Amino acid sequence: MRGLRADARLAWALLRGSPGSERWRLTLTGLGAVLGTGFALAATVVAVIGTRFGGGVPRYTNDLLNESGLRPGVIAALLLLVLPVLAFIGQCTRIGALQRERRLAALRLAGATPRQVRRISALETGAVCGLGSLAGLAGFLALRAVLDAAQGGSGPQTWPTDVPVPWAAAVPVVLAVPALATLEARFTLRRAGADPLGVVSKGRRPRPRVGRGRLALWALAPLALLAATGLQLLNTSVLNGGMAMSAALVIAVVVLCAVALLFGTAGLALVTGRLAARSSRPALLIAGERLQADPWAAARSHAAMLLTALIGVGFVGVRRMMIDYLDAWPESFAINSAFYTDGLNLTGLALLIGLSVTISGLVVGTVESVITRRRTLAALSATGVPRSVLSRAVLLETFLPLAPTIAVATACGLTVVGSLPFEGTSLPLLEPLLTAAALLAAALLATTASLPLLRRTAHPAELRYE
Amino acid sequence: MTTPPPLIEARDLVKSYGAGQAPALRGAILHLAPGEILAVTGPSGSGKSTLLHCLSGIVTPDSGSVRYGSERLDQATETRRSELRRTEFGVVFQFGQLVGELTALDNVALPLLLAGTSRKKAHESAGEWLERFGVRGQAALRPGEMSGGQGQRVALARAMVTRPKALFADEPTGALDSLAGEQVMTALVHAARESGTAVLLITHDAQVAAYADREATVRDGAVAGETGAEVIR
Amino acid sequence: MSTAHILLSLLASEAGHGYDLKRRHDDRFPQARPLAYGQVYTTLQRLTRDGLAEVAKTEDPEDSGGPERTTYRITEAGVQALRTWLSETVPAAPVSAASEIFAKVVAIMASGFGDPADFLRDQRAAHLTRMRELTAAKTAPNATLSAVLSADYALNHLDADLRWMDTTAQRLDALAQEVRTS
Fold first, then answer.
1. pLDDT tens digit string along A129-139?
2. Which of B43, B186, B227 lies nearest to residue C128, judging by beta carbons?
3. Is C50 near chain B, with CB under 8 Å?
């Protein structure tokens, strides 16, 4: 216990002396924990509506909460929102990774055991996420109180504030968020702090080579796409099974597409990198070499973006088709069509929230990569490479692998949507394509947001600092 | 007169980093007597630093043995070697060994804190050592806010705070101008003599090597020659 | 540095006459002042007088059609004297000793007596011993600033010698090639 207390003190001392990037990381990680806790707590509240813990028969203005058949969907959506949050926290863990590695190595050199070092860094993340999680709980309770006061006591309510907070579920949630984040940090930093010479051996490390084992993983991408196509064909033309069968196949296709996209990004990053590196234009050359050097970095930072694209395009397509379908057959539905459009809009809102978290993660990723490479960038700048070329290189580094993968994601999404049985409607193209373009634009804008930092970072004066 | 048994003795060390690369050490033999100051010189890339890393237990050799007393460092666990680093060995590099996030005082207290010494006691000793190396005034500063010479003296204070049996210094003055280097070396030699600490000093600078009692020259991963005599203190 | 020993080392590899010795000397020590022929002549005479060298043969100008030429060769005593000189390290003095060290390295190569690498190693040890003494004097607790500064002066000169020896040690093979072919 004494060791733990000493470690906690050390972690605190380290935190106090941390540079700005470290505080940023911890603030953003804490914010992620706040969001994650909030979403998960909302899910627990929805889960108890209509149960014996949940105070009577539900009567809300929104049928999504009233219908016991629809509530699991709402819960799932809320829990799914935790995923981009976790991706965001993971992205945050990478901020200042180089500095942290150096710090852990220095600790090791002073005689800390690998276990001590890992404990100290886990204490950091765990404590910050714990604080974030508690803040999330406090914020959730405050919001609930405000909403409760705002909507008064009588009549059907918009928000389920009449449901008591299910503490039996809320407490585990508040504990689980920091635990998950700590595990994630532990995984991200699994190699950090192993080598006490990390402080001195920088630059001596060989360039990361693309191993054969990893090369094989890219082959998964076309394979998964092929399998997805097969299932898709099976679903639309051959099988005329029931609804459940069809739904299972659609889910399988979506999962296969997601796998293909994730592994395909690295491959596409390598291919576009190779092509770009042949160019004689300096910006393309720099971006191409970077992509070739570490194609998996692109896959890592764009993974959440691609999933968002896949789901977003799919969703927009489904939404348009459903609305058309409702317009085409207005009399065939017992409940009015507002119920469906409400549901669709709420789902859209959830997706938008997810997207904004994803974009934030992308910004964090770009900022991190610029900070990590600041010596290289400053050295390039010192040798006379114009800053505009560097800016373009950073943008291209995002654009080159992302543009083709978003195109593939769009194609995947549209194919899945096209197979859905909405009679009398045609496959919408305009909205999904606009969505894809908007996503790409948003990603580029997010990258652009990091360029002012580049301007400051890539200053030759940076070379002085070590 | 009989020579005392060596403090650390390395035999036939072989070490290479990764397949296909020329070995950094090929059959190096070296010993460090208790309390002596030994300079290891040689051209860059000759394996000096790797030799220091092996003797201090930072890396383990591919083959050969490193004896510390009756203990085999090359076979010790990572935990044991970490423990030795914070209790019986001190390490100083050219730069970068201080934790950038900690103040000079915390940095010097670090090995004690890691070993579980109370904060108050650790800070007391750390303060004394900072005083001895003439950097007491920098106690509240972080490494980035000090000059190179001050940083190296803080690093020395940290290496000496546990009164180690052996101090491993890899080009401790390599990044300093000659006056700052002289101050660091003088402080190092005086502190080592007073505590009876043996020093393994890696340098390519003869003026730094002249602070040592003995010199071993490394060439192509092996000790090619020695000058000077072991001084028994 | 002694011209006599240098000439002895040149004679040790191959007998030669005065002009030949002067040319070989000037080739190998391009930085040194060229030897005056008169100096070569008097030195050879002194060597002969001391029994370190002897006349191998004298060519009659009538036969060769040129000036009278006396070819000298080294004697056993000369070999001994040369070996003694070559085995001594140069005093590690604050005034740069590099030119004499260089002379010895070349002389070792020219005569084939001893190993230049060994010589340089011994010389390095001698220099370092002196540097240790100087360093000890300057870090002594009661050392005055004047003592420190004068020690520094000597240390820096010795250090310069050492650097030169280190780089020379790494280029001995190339130097041997050059000495052999000239």
1. 888 899 989 99
2. B227
3. no
